Amino acid sequence: MSGIVVQNISRAAREVTEGLAKCGVATVHEAQGRTGLLSHHMRPIFPGARVAGSAVTIAAPPGDNWMVHVAIEQLQEGDILVLAPTSPCVDAYFGDLLATSVRARGCRGLVIEAGVRDVRDLTAMQFPVWSKAVFAQGTVKATLGSVNVPIVCDGALINPGDIIVADDDGVCVVPRANAAQVLEKAQAREAEEEVKRKRLAAGELSLDIYDMRSTLAARGLKYV
């Protein structure tokens, strides 16, 4: 599918998105049954960012960033741009000028299965990007792609309006229809972990907290 721009997409409630951002990638990934992770290739260009937002998706031809410019018009406050090239490519589709433009539209970050450049400026701006590559090679504007269509980005199916959660651990996608339930499970998981954290800090062993001893013995572990 190419040459399509879907202008009206459904987005999750803001409080759900904000809640998932606070939980972070690892907790959200576990809470939805260890699904939704993009591959380990998708890395942040600087440490410390933690964001979540609704996906505005871009299917872009290799080495051509025309559709990024088209997608900017579709951004709303709290969105995250997600770009997947239609063929493998590490050219830089995005730099500091585009970051200035998308931030003015309320965009919270970029996830891109390709390259970015102007990393020093993006870092100074504190505009979060998770990318497959950092590469100075630029792009052209010659071939149509599509905006707000389903894409596969770094191994994960992402529909427009799905929730993207991203931090130092990587990127996870939460289907919009499941977002409220995933948030509830993630918050419950955080509460359980806080109890365990206090017990570990008090000196209890994980062997006992997680009741591992009998299972280890059944598997044949012997202390000599």
Structure classification: alpha/beta
Assess the beta-strand content as a share of residues: 15-25%
Major sheet = 9 strands, mixed
H-E order: HHEEHEEHEHEEEEEEHHH
The radius of gyration is 20 Å
Mean pLDDT metric: 97
What are the low-pLDDT stretches, counting only 5+ consecutive residues below 50?
none
User: How many β-strand stretches?
Assistant: 11
The gross shape turns out to be elongated
- For the terminal residues, how far apart are their CA atoms? 64 Å
The residue fraction in helices comes out at 25-40%
Supply the number of helical segments: 8
Topology overview:
Layout (H helix, E strand, L loop, with lengths): L13 H10 L1 H7 L11 E2 L6 E10 L5 H7 L6 E7 L6 E3 L1 H9 L4 E8 L2 H7 L3 E6 L11 E2 L3 E3 L2 E3 L4 E5 L2 E5 L4 H23 L4 H4 L3 H6 L6
Parallel strand pairs: 2-3, 3-5, 4-5, 5-6
Antiparallel strand pairs: 1-6, 2-7, 2-10, 8-9, 10-11
Helix pairs in contact: 1-6, 2-6
Question: Gist?
Answer:
33% of the residues lie in helices and 24% in strands.
Q: What key phrases describe this protein's structure?
A:
224 residues; two-stranded antiparallel sheet; 8 helices
Notes on the structure:
This protein is α/β, with parallel strands linked by helices. The chain has helices at residues 14-23, 25-31, 66-72, 96-104, 119-125, 179-201, 206-209, 213-218, and strands at residues 43-44, 51-60, 79-85, 92-94, 109-116, 129-134, 146-147, 151-153, 156-158, 163-167, 170-174. The protein contains eight helices and eleven strands. Strands 1, 2, 3, 4, 5, 6, 7, 10 and 11 form a nine-stranded mixed beta sheet that branches. A hairpin with a 2-residue loop joins β10 and β11. α1 (14-23) runs parallel beside α6. The chain starts with 13 loop residues before the first helix and ends in a 6-residue tail after the last helix. The model has no long low-confidence stretch (mean pLDDT 97).
